[in-house]
Specification:
Strand order of the largest sheet: 1-5-6-4-3-2
InterPro entries: Atg1-like, Kinase-like_dom_sf, Prot_kinase_dom, Protein_kinase_ATP_BS
Distance between the termini: 31 Å
Domain Protein kinase: 23-283
Largest sheet: 6 strands, mixed
Keywords: ATP-binding, Kinase, Nucleotide-binding, Transferase
Structural class: alpha+beta
Number of helices: 16
Protein name: Serine/threonine-protein kinase PknB
Order of helices and strands: HHEHEEEHHEEEHHEEEEHHHHHHHHHEE
Bound molecules: adenosine-5'-triphosphate
Biased composition (Basic and acidic residues): 317-326
Length: 393
C-alpha cells in the first residue's frame, strides 16, 4: 500500500536533479535544523544562488505530522511569494537522492539573530524600519492565506542594503480549518503563542504573537519572559504577564511600547486583529522620526554656514536623538566590536521540542508540562523525530 502511494505520489513524477552536476557548490553558509544551505553557482543560469537541501528523514517526519491534510511542501509554498521582504525562491525540486531542494536568491548580509545580539549601529539606526519591513512581510503572508508558525530572528536576514528578508518556510501551513485544529506544537518555544503551547485552536494570531516577541527582542535584546527557552519554562510562565518593555527601555516611545505589549496578550482576542493594525503606530512613529531627522539636518545645514564645522552636531548624534532606541539600556549600547565575540561566547540555549509525533490535527487536551520534551539547539523549532523524546536538531 505504502509502495503504491509512493509510486503515485507527486515526488515520483518529478524529474530528479543531480545537484553536483547542476551547481558549483562554493561554500556552506548555513546549517539549519532541517537542512543544509550552500552558496552555489547555478550552472544553468550562471547566477549565484542559495541552495537549500532539506534533510530527507527529518522532512518526512515533519510531513508525517500532516497526514491526510495534504500540506504543501516548503518549495511549493516558497516559489509563490513575491514580496520585497521575503526571499525569492526561483525553483524547487528533488535531488537524485530524493531530497527536496530550493534554489533562492543569495542574501549577502546577516541573520537578524546576530543583529539582535550585536545591537550595533545598524540596529540602533534601523530597528524600527526592520520591524515595519518584517510586519509587512507577515501581513503579505496572511493576505495570501498562510500562517508562518515560526517567526523569530533566526528565520530572518538583513541584507547589505539594509533590507530585511524572511527566509524560512519550513513550518508554513495554509490558513484553512483543518490546519487550525488543536494539535502538536511546532515552532520555537520562546516565540510560541500561548494557544499553540496549550494545544488549543490556532489562527494567524500566533504569528502576531511571535512578531511581538521578535520586536521586543529587537529593541531590548531580551525576551518578554525570563527563561522562555524550553517548553517547560514556557509552560511555567505562560499565564504570567510579560515584563513591560518600558521597564527595560524607560525612554521608549509609548506608542511603540503599547503596540508590542498588545501583541503579547495571552488571549488571541485581546491582541491586534491584524499585523496591519499593529503597524499603524510603528509607521506613525517612523514617519515622525524621519521628519524630525530631516528638520534637524536642514537646521544643521543652515547653522553650519554661520558656525565653525567643529560645532556642528554629527550625523550620528542627530540620528540617535530621534531614534526610539536611543534610550536603550547600557548593555545595549556597548561597543560595536564586542557582539560577535559575545555571540560566540553566549551559551546556546536549549530549544524546545514537541517530538511526540502527534498528527497536526490530533487534539492533545490532557498534555501536562511534565510530558513535554526538550530539544537541544538554541531557538530551534520544535520538529518531529519519532522515538527520540530528547530530540536534537
Ligand atoms: N537565501 C539565503 N541566502 C543566504 N543565506 C541563507 C539563505 N537561506 C538560508 N541561509 C542561511 O542558512 C541558514 C539556514 O537556513 P534555514 O533557516 O532556511 O534552514 P532550516 O533548516 O529551515 O533552519 P531551521 O529549521 O533551523 O530554522 C540561515 O540561518 C542562513 O544563515
Amino acid at each position: 500500500m505504502n509502495f503504491l502511494k509512493r509510486f503515485f505520489s507527486k515526488e515520483s513524477r518529478q524529474p530528479r536533479v543531480n545537484i553536483k552536476q547542476r551547481f558549483e557548490l562554493i561554500g556552506r553558509v548555513g546549517q539549519g535544523s532541517m537542512s543544509k544551505v550552500w552558496r552555489a553557482r547555478d550552472l544553468n543560469s550562471g547566477r549565484t544562488v542559495a541552495l537549500k537541501v532539506l534533510h530527507k528523514q527529518k522532512t518526512e517526519e515533519l510531513e508525517a505530522r500532516f497526514v491526510g491534510l495534504n500540506k504543501p511542501r516548503e518549495g511549493d509554498i516558497a516559489v509563490q511569494f513575491q514580496h520585497p521582504h521575503i526571499v525569492k525562491t526561483f525553483e524547487h525540486g528533488l535531488t537524485s537522492e530524493g531530497e527536496q531542494f530550493l534554489v533562492m536568491e543569495f542574501i549577502e548580509g546577516y541573520s537578524l539573530s546576530f543583529l539582535v545580539e550585536a545591537q550595533n549601529e545598524d540596529m540602533r539606526t534601523n530597528c524600527l524600519k526592520y520591524m515595519i519591513q518584517l510586519g509587512e512581510a507577515i501581513q503579505y503572508f496572511h493576505n495570501e492565506n498562510w500562517i508562518h508558525r515560526d517567526i523569530c530572528p533566526r528565520n530572518i536576514m538583513v541584507d547589505n542594503e539594509q533590507q530585511l528578508k524572511l527566509i524560512d518556510f519550513g513550518l508554513v501551513v495554509p490558513n484553512t480549518p483543518p490546519f487550525l485544529l488543536p494539535g502538536n506544537r511546532t515552532g520555537t518555544a520562546a516565540y510560541m503563542a500561548p494557544e499553540l503551547i496549550k494545544r488549543q485552536k490556532t489562527s494567524q494570531k500566533i504569528d502576531i504573537f511571535s512578531y511581538a516577541v521578535t520586536c521586543y527582542e529587537m529593541l531590548t535584546r531580551q525576551l518578554p519572559w525570563k527563561a522562555a527557552e524550553t517548553m517547560e519554562a514556557v509552560l511555567q510562565h505562560i499565564n504570567s504577564p510579560p515584563k513591560p518593555i518600558q521597564e527595560l527601555l524607560p525612554g521608549i516611545n509609548p506608542q511603540i511600547a503599547d503596540a508590542i505589549m498588545k501583541g503579547l496578550e495571552l488571549y488571541p482576542q485581546d491582541r491586534w486583529q491584524t499585523i496591519d493594525e499593529m503597524l499603524v503606530p510603528f509607521k506613525e512613529v517612523y514617519q515622525s522620526q524621519k521628519t524630525a531627522v530631516t528638520q534637524q539636518k536642514s537646521e544643521t545645514t543652515d547653522s553650519s554656514t554661520s558656525r565653525p564645522a567643529a560645532a556642528v552636531p554629527g550625523k550620528k548624534g542627530s540620528r540617535e536623538k530621534s531614534d526610539p532606541n536611543s534610550k536603550r539600556p547600557r548593555s545595549a549600547q556597548k561597543p560595536v566590536q564586542t557582539p560577535e565575540q559575545r555571540l560566540r561566547r553566549r551559551k546556546r540555549k536549549p530549544p524546545v521540542d514537541d517530538s511526540q509525533g502527534t498528527s497536526e490535527n490530533q487534539p492533545q487536551p490532557g498534555s501536562s508540562p511534565g510530558k513535554e520534551q526538550h530539544a537541544s539547539r538554541k531557538n530551534t523549532p520544535s520538529r518531529p523525530k519519532p522515538g527520540n523524546p530528547d530530540e536534537s536538531h
